[in-house]
């Protein structure tokens, strides 16, 4: 079947797929990790020509910290296990609220009876991360009246959580030429402890900042970004250690989780998610090649910890290459799995694989959630993870065995893809559809669509196959929340149409270090709808209690409270409150950008606040911004229109950042008459605005179609019109890019990305 069977819209950036790809692989003995070099301060030079003796890229001290006012609170202690496991109330000290990742607060001043009276208390403009390539996905943290947040540009701010005034700012110097960020420039948050703020940078460095000043205390190079290693998740502080996972599965990395000494940044242990020769699980990889070395399985989210059991828990991404299983025969452990390690040593305790031999990019991107509940008359220690498959996987966290029940069932087979004969099917309800029916195709797909349709686990090869859920999920990266009072898990799920196919001659099928390595092609179906669900699931039965249906993807995260409330953000900029028991819609406030990050709550001087970072998202295609909105029952502003411009707190560095951005724009506007300069400028513009959706070579992006074969890239006039005005889910770039930038971009696409006849 020829490629015209792909129903696509030119360069559409169909904003439906945020494939928080989480590809993990194997686990090695932590004692085998080589001793790490001594950390250098940010003032020290690190070798001639910016290189180590082993050729690794080094970084000079170009980070900048700016103190705008005196720090008003106390610094964080070396938090105890009790402090880190308690449900948050006054403070919000970890990415997930506590180290159980439940995102539940004990505060109930704001509740179902009065939430309709919420008004905006303060709004602060970060002055950072508002360009299209950036995404605002961060969960702020709060301690003793001070909030800390990170933007998509990796800038960090300390903010007075009562007034919104910025106390200090940290601007990192990211690596020049950073081009291995698969899914948009973003960070999902920070960690706090022992007087330090811990930051994972996109170029795979871990940095500790002084909590009062934002100055660098230490810095560690976790890995080499040139090979595709990134950090997008929030680190986790516990017991004097800082834990971080590594992203980059789309680049054929070998995933892992590592622990670092919180005082000096030295690595304590590293555990790979793909086992090496002689280790348990290695036999689940093809034995006549080295596919395990590029097997993926990254970790996209912040782990959870049970101090009583001494275990750290996380879920892993799919195997690499994402969509081609022909050369990695076997289940491919420990990709697509929930994994438990010893928190002190990194020794593996147990695992549960959600998808065997994944070829659909159904990685486990949603953070794991720990809970204690009575199941069948017995108190149990549970762990839950909302999968891209559309199911919640509920296990006993002491053993990794199913708590509710999960059956292995036979599934359709493809000899060429080496598919697994069975897959795990959890008992309970799926929270999104798991099949494309004939009725769906007639209702939702264009008349000219003539591709094949299937269900979850339907394999594909050289004929396009459209299935559900898509690579976007099901449950993607936006965190779930658990309320111990209702005993419901609140999950965001996506429902849209994606097609897969494999072509043996495609560039995506070959591994080239530092380049995307997907192994096949995928893309959204043109003019098909994107939908989503907000679902309350009974943790004791895995059954749906209530569900809300949206007409766009759900791409933010969940907060739940003792006030019997659930808060979520919406693509259109709204923050919404539901009744946690019934799902009744109780309140909303529309911000000026996509509300694509999880809300939080905290208390100062007896007053409860609700906050959300509303900055938009590249892969969701939402309106970009740079503001934190904070609400209370004593707030003054009913709507965005009521807030005077002069009442919005602004970064003292905003003007300087604007000048810098304008300077960069002017540089990229200088189109030269001949040579490669103009094409180099076009490549930069493409990387900043198009790469995350369309891939670094015009194919293999994470929510846009391949543009290599598209007819539109053969017609310069139509291409420019598409870039300017958008359409088919692609946002318009008129007003974002100048005329000269659009011209240079179109030249680059036609010259370098379009397939020549």
Automatic annotation (TrEMBL):
<feature type="compositionally biased region" description="Basic and acidic residues">
    <location>
        <begin position="45"/>
        <end position="56"/>
    </location>
</feature>
<dbReference type="InterPro" id="IPR018391">
    <property type="entry name" value="PQQ_b-propeller_rpt"/>
</dbReference>
<dbReference type="GO" id="GO:0046872">
    <property type="term" value="F:metal ion binding"/>
</dbReference>
<keyword id="KW-0732">Signal</keyword>
<feature type="region of interest" description="Disordered">
    <location>
        <begin position="408"/>
        <end position="433"/>
    </location>
</feature>
<dbReference type="GO" id="GO:0016491">
    <property type="term" value="F:oxidoreductase activity"/>
</dbReference>
<dbReference type="InterPro" id="IPR002372">
    <property type="entry name" value="PQQ_rpt_dom"/>
</dbReference>
<protein>
    <submittedName>
        <fullName>PQQ-dependent dehydrogenase, methanol/ethanol family</fullName>
    </submittedName>
</protein>
<dbReference type="InterPro" id="IPR036909">
    <property type="entry name" value="Cyt_c-like_dom_sf"/>
</dbReference>
<keyword id="KW-0812">Transmembrane</keyword>
<dbReference type="GO" id="GO:0020037">
    <property type="term" value="F:heme binding"/>
</dbReference>
<feature type="region of interest" description="Disordered">
    <location>
        <begin position="640"/>
        <end position="675"/>
    </location>
</feature>
<dbReference type="InterPro" id="IPR011047">
    <property type="entry name" value="Quinoprotein_ADH-like_sf"/>
</dbReference>
<keyword id="KW-0472">Membrane</keyword>
<dbReference type="Pfam" id="PF13442">
    <property type="entry name" value="Cytochrome_CBB3"/>
</dbReference>
<feature type="transmembrane region" description="Helical">
    <location>
        <begin position="7"/>
        <end position="27"/>
    </location>
</feature>
<keyword id="KW-0479">Metal-binding</keyword>
<keyword id="KW-0560">Oxidoreductase</keyword>
<keyword id="KW-0349">Heme</keyword>
<keyword id="KW-0408">Iron</keyword>
<dbReference type="InterPro" id="IPR009056">
    <property type="entry name" value="Cyt_c-like_dom"/>
</dbReference>
<feature type="domain" description="Cytochrome c">
    <location>
        <begin position="677"/>
        <end position="753"/>
    </location>
</feature>
<feature type="region of interest" description="Disordered">
    <location>
        <begin position="33"/>
        <end position="56"/>
    </location>
</feature>
<keyword id="KW-1133">Transmembrane helix</keyword>
<dbReference type="Pfam" id="PF01011">
    <property type="entry name" value="PQQ"/>
</dbReference>
<comment type="similarity">
    <text>Belongs to the bacterial PQQ dehydrogenase family.</text>
</comment>
<feature type="compositionally biased region" description="Polar residues">
    <location>
        <begin position="33"/>
        <end position="44"/>
    </location>
</feature>
<dbReference type="GO" id="GO:0009055">
    <property type="term" value="F:electron transfer activity"/>
</dbReference>
């Amino acid at each position: 079947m020829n490629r015209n069977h792909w129903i696509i819209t030119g360069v559409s950036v169909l904003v439906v797929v945020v494939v928080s790809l989480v590809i993990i692989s194997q686990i090695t003995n932590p004692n085998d990790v080589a001793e790490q070099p001594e950390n250098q301060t940010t003032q020290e030079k690190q070798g001639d020509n910016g290189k180590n003796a082993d050729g690794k890229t080094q970084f000079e001290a170009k980070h900048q910290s700016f103190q705008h006012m005196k720090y008003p609170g106390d610094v964080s202690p070396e938090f105890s296990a009790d402090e880190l496991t308690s449900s948050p109330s006054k403070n919000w000290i970890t990415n997930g609220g506590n180290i159980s990742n439940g995102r539940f607060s004990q505060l109930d001043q704001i509740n179902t009876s009065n939430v309709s009276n919420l008004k905006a208390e303060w709004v602060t403009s970060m002055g950072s991360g508002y360009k299209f390539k950036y995404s605002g996905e961060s969960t702020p943290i709060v301690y003793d009246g001070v909030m800390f947040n990170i933007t998509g540009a990796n800038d960090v701010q300390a903010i007075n959580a009562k007034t919104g005034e910025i106390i200090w700012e940290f601007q990192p110097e990211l690596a020049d030429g950073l081009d291995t960020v698969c899914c948009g420039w973003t960070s999902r948050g920070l960690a706090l402890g022992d007087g330090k703020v811990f930051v994972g940078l996109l170029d795979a460095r871990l940095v500790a900042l002084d909590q009062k000043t934002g100055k660098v205390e230490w810095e560690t190079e976790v890995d080499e970004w040139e090979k595709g290693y990134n950090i997008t998740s929030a680190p986790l502080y516990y017991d004097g250690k800082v834990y971080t996972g590594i992203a980059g599965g789309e680049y054929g990395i070998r995933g892992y989780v590592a622990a670092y000494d919180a005082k000096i940044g030295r690595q304590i242990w590293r555990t790979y998610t793909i086992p090496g020769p002689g280790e348990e699980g290695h036999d689940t990889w093809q034995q006549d090649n080295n596919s395990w070395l590029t097997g993926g399985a990254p970790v996209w989210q912040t782990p959870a910890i049970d101090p009583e059991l001494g275990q750290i828990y996380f879920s892993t991404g799919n195997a690499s290459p994402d969509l081609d299983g022909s050369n990695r025969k076997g289940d491919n452990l420990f990709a697509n799995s929930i994994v438990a390690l010893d928190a002190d040593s990194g020794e593996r305790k147990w695992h549960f694989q959600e998808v065997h031999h994944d070829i659909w990019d159904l990685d486990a991107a949603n953070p794991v959630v720990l809970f204690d509940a009575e199941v069948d008359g017995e108190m149990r220690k549970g762990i839950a993870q909302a999968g891209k498959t559309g199911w919640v996987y509920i296990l006993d966290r002491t053993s990794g065995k199913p708590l509710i029940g999960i059956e292995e069932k036979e599934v359709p087979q493809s000899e060429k893809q080496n598919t697994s004969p069975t897959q795990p099917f959890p008992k309970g309800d799926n929270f999104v559809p798991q099949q494309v029916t004939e009725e769906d195709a007639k209702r939702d797909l264009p008349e000219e669509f003539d591709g094949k349709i299937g269900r979850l686990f339907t394999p594909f090869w050289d004929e396009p196959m459209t299935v559900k859920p898509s690579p976007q999920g099901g449950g993607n990266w936006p965190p779930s929340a658990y309320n111990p009072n209702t005993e419901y898990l609140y999950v965001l799920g996506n429902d849209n149409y994606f097609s897969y196919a494999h072509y043996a001659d495609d560039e995506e099928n070959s591994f080239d270090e530092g380049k995307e390595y997907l192994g096949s092609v995928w893309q959204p179906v043109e003019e098909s709808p994107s939908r989503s669900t907000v679902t309350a699931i009974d943790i004791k039965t895995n059954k749906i209690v209530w569900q809300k249906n949206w007409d766009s993807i759900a791409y933010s995260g969940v907060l739940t409270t003792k006030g019997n409330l659930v808060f979520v953000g919406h693509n259109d900029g709204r923050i919404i409150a539901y009744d946690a028991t019934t799902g009744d819609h109780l309140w909303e406030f529309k911000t000026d950008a996509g509300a694509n990050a999880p809300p939080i709550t905290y208390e100062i001087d007896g007053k409860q606040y609700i906050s959300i970072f509303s900055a938009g998202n590249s892969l969701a295609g939402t309106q970009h911004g740079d503001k934190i909105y904070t609400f209370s029952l004593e707030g003054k502003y009913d709507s965005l229109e009521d807030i005077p411009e002069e009442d919005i707190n602004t970064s003292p560095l905003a003007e300087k950042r604007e000048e810098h951005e304008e300077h960069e724009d002017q540089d990229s506007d200088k189109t030269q008459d001949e040579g490669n300069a103009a094409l180099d400028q076009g490549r930069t513009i493409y990387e900043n605005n198009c790469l995350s959706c369309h891939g670094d070579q015009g194919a293999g992006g994470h929510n846009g179609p391949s543009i290599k074969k598209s007819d539109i890239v053969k017609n310069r006039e139509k291409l420019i019109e598409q870039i300017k005005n958008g359409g088919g889910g692609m946002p318009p770039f008129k007003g974002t890019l100048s005329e000269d930038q659009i011209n240079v971009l179109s030249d680059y696409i036609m010259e370098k990305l379009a397939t020549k006849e």
